[in-house]
Amino acid sequence: SAMFASFSGAILGLSFTIVCVCRSLNALIDEFCCDVVDRMHVTEVAEVWNLTQAVLRNASSTIEHGLVALFAIPAFVMPLLLVDIVLRPEDTYSAAFAPLVIVCGVVFMALSAARISDKCSRVPP
Predict the structure, then answer these.
(1) What is the value of pTM for the model shown?
(2) Residue 19: which residues within 8 A CB-CB, separation 6 or more?
(3) Is the CB of residue 30 less than 8 Å from the CB of residue 82?
(4) First CA to last CA across the chain, in angstroms?
(5) Which of 11, 22, 51, 86 could be cross-linked to 112 through a Cys-Cys bond (beta carbons 3.0 to 4.6 Å apart)?
(6) CA 58 to chain CA mean position, Å
(7) DSSP labels for 23-81?
C-alpha cells in the first residue's frame, strides 16, 4: 500500500510537472501573439516566430519521453483495474479510486499538451 502510494505520487508529480511546462509554453505563445499585436513590425514577426517555434520544438523534444511513458500508464492501469473489480467486487469503490485519480491526472496532462498544438495552429505564419 505504501509502495502504491509513493508510485502514484511520483506519477502525479511527473504529470503535473509536464502540465507546468505546457502552461509555460502556452504563455510563450500568448506572449508572442501579444507582442505581434502591440509592438512588432511585420519584418520582425517571421524571425521571432521562428525563434518561438525553435523553443517549442526544443521543449517538446525534452519532455517527449516522459509523455510517452505517462501515456502508457493508463493503458496498463485500466485493464488491471477491470480485473481487480471483477475478482473483488466487494472492494470496488476503494480499489477503483486511486487508479482513476492517476488516469485523470494523465488525461489532464495530455489535454494541456494538446492545447499547445491547438494554439500554434491558430497563429498565422
Answers:
(1) 0.77
(2) 108, 109, 112
(3) no
(4) 51
(5) 22
(6) 16
(7) HHHHHHHHHHHHHHHHT--HHHHHHHHHHHHHHHHHHHHHHHHHHHHHHHHHHHHHHHH
